[in-house]
Structure formats: structure tokens, C-alpha cells
């Protein structure tokens, strides 16, 4: 330690730290490509639900509406799973959409399509 301090004082050498280990130049196109590769690495295939699982999801949603329980809905969108939690505000059977009321400081409503739903949990 003492030797390094004397050596840097004598030589007038300033250490650049982490900068010296980074690449000299990365073009924006290369950076974008690396980010897309990282994003694709974590992508998942959409789980295929059979009739029994779809019926079970529908019954849980109806149960939560009837007794006004909070629901945690897991959806699949573009290769990733997203989790939403709140009260089921309304069902639209024609458009096949669930309106979920988010339970935060500022209440807002999220539209979730039936075909995107993978899993439903009812919190009693």
C-alpha cells in the first residue's frame, strides 16, 4: 500500500479505476442489440390451459366478485408474466375483458383480457 502511494507520486500516474476495464467504444446499435438479447433470454412461452383450468379460473373470479374478495391475477404478455392485484370491478363477457380496481392510494382500473390470464388467486 505504501509502495503504491510512493510509486504513483513519483510517476505522476492517475489510476482511472473501472474505466480502464470498460470497452473503448460501443455503438448505440450494439448496445440496443445487447439489451434485446438480454430481454429475449428471460422470455417464456405461453402456458397452454386446458378446459378444466379455464373453468377453475372463471369460478375463482365469480367467487371473488360475489364476496368482494381481493384477487391476484397473473397474466402472460409478450413472453413475460405480470401480476395484478385488486378487486374485480366489472366483467364484460362480450369483449371478454375483466376490469380490475387497483387498491392503492389513487384508485385506478386495469383492463385485463381473458385470453391473457394464466393464474388467479383469491385472497380472503
From TrEMBL:
One Pfam family from the record: YolD
InterPro entries: YolD (IPR014962)
Taxonomy, superkingdom: Bacteria
PANTHER family: IG HYPOTHETICAL 15966 (PTHR40051), YOLD-LIKE FAMILY PROTEIN (PTHR40051:SF1)
The protein's name in its UniProt record: YolD-like family protein
